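Quick entry between incubations.
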Amino acid sequence: MTNLKFLAAGAAVGVFAFGTAFADTLDDVKRKGFVQCGVSQGLPGFSNPDEKGNWTGIDVDVCRAVAAGLFGDASKVKYTPLSAKERFTALQSGEVDLLSRNTTWTLVRDSALGLDFTGVNYYDGQGFMVRKSLGVKSASELSGAAVCVNIGTTTELNLADYFRANKMEYTPVVFEKADEVVAAYDAGRCDVYTTDQSGLYAQRIKMKNPAEHVVLPEVISKEPLGPVVRHGDNKFGDVVRWSLYAMIEAEEMGLNSGNVESEKANSGDPGKRRLLGVEGDLGQNLGLPGSWAYDIISQVGNYGESFARNLGPDTALNIERGLNALWKDGGLQYAMPAR
Ligand SMILES: N[C@@H](CCC(=O)N[C@@H](CS)C(=O)NCC(=O)O)C(=O)O
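Done. Structure below.
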């Protein structure tokens, strides 16, 4: 009986912690004047600092878009680098307001961990990398391999599923920091490196001789990566969701950082006029200034610009749009209607 009481009391505190204590992240963020954004510890194309500590990447652009929408200034962001293992505790505890760190949207994370996913800024899938000299052409040839992998990731779980389902053996070689995983693989401590395919391309740049490694054709999982807020943090969650949608919607409408000023001044298109705050009160509904989407597009760019700048053919990653093309070009990126 006593135990039951303890459990009930504990549950109530849990609800309070997730439901009330952080319910006003939007107000808190407005008051302090910046967004505290949880990012990776350095993943080129997604969230990566240069030698001066300036962060860039497609995940960083989500943080910057939220700041642009809120404050009219994309630079009002502070970054907290987090390992895969640390990331959820950092969000749950309030150390960060927003997690934008190549994080896969799964049922358990969305329900049991007190988190809410606000969208998908990159559709990915897990892959394998090996040394070309191994002569392996398919993942089906990997039985008996030592596999380097990051702890606290979906990668670890999918790896186990894949080998089990295919009745193959493997030896996991696990590390907490992604750089340790890459260094171990590069030093030959394992035969295979596995992570999200985008991560394989990103991390290959850091290896001693990138041309010596090949990504195998198999994609063994779905990895929808997106920004995360605390469960119950609906107002702030809405701001994050619609900041990302504003970037996608802008690409759908043909608005970009180069033309948005003249489009705002001259366009007669009702949808563009609404999104850019010339007509209506979309921003007000989100608790944002009327210029929120204009500020996002002019300062951060549309989704396609962000993709091209961080991941596209002109970057060292050289990733195609693929699943991340707009829905009207055969991809999955689709913004809900801004009206
Ligand atoms: N998407 C997967 C994997 C995420 C992950 O942490 N991947 C590693 C390997 S690419 C990583 O981000 N490393 C960069 C870092 O920790 O800085 C998940 O959400 O669990």
